[in-house]
Amino acid sequence: MAETGAQPARPIAAAKRYEMIQDHSFTPVFDRFRPTATSFIVTIYGDVVVPRGGVLWMGDLIALCAGAGISETLVRTAVSRLVAAGQLSGERRGRRSYYSLAAPARQEFDDAAARLFGPVPGRSDWVILHAPGLADDAARRRGYGAMGAGNFLLPGWMAAGAVPGPEPAQAFRADAISPPLALAARLWELDALAADYREMLALFAPALRAASLAPPGGAEALRLRLALVHSFRRILLRDPQLPPDSLPEGWRGAEARAVFARLYTLLSGAADSFIGARLEGLDGPLPAENEITRARLAGLAAIAGPADD
User: Residue 276: which H helix or E strand, with range?
Assistant: First the structure.
């Protein structure tokens, strides 16, 4: 049964469980990290909860969100909206409420995880999709370039997941496009993505150096990792990951991905230990690690490359 009322949790008890989460050793990141409640809850479920069975106690969710400056009231409102949207479902055990990822939302979370932790697309070909029934706005949300008259340009790696729309579609492969830089700049908002990558690097490259010298403790490691995942995810899921010859000079997407992989890996030992010691699901403590979390770290190892001296 979903919890939709304003029944108070135990904010004092929850705060005591996470006293360390208010440590500000990484002040530049935490001062600028102000996510919305709904988007941050999605990040928590994607990074922490879904790989470990998909269920989390509401008190733990409130405490994790408090580390990002999100109040209990906003958390409860956001959870109610996610339940109404079919992304979360709730269940009560005694006086406690637990929320799990709803089945219809699973594919969206799996797709995001594949982008974050899977291999970098290595294809340089393109697909031209003629799909008159596919609206331009819907196509752009999937990362397609809208050329007009029902025609869309896709990097080749997206072809397997192409959605043609309600009418029959035709797809044509191309080894190259011309001129690649000008066409890509017209069809995708690469300048805005480039600025977002620069901003992310300005925050998290120094955090990587600081964490390498003095690794943070469990609660702070998890807090920093959630900020990292949230920040990188919102950029990566808008990035069509075009072939290199179509990207503007000075593109820093690969650099941002490497910083993400290195910092995520560096933080995960302490963060995962904290998860196993402090966070609760419906059947008891969440596991610190499992096959899914180990596979994610293995996927990042190939991206991270050698550590800087």
Answer: helix 253-278
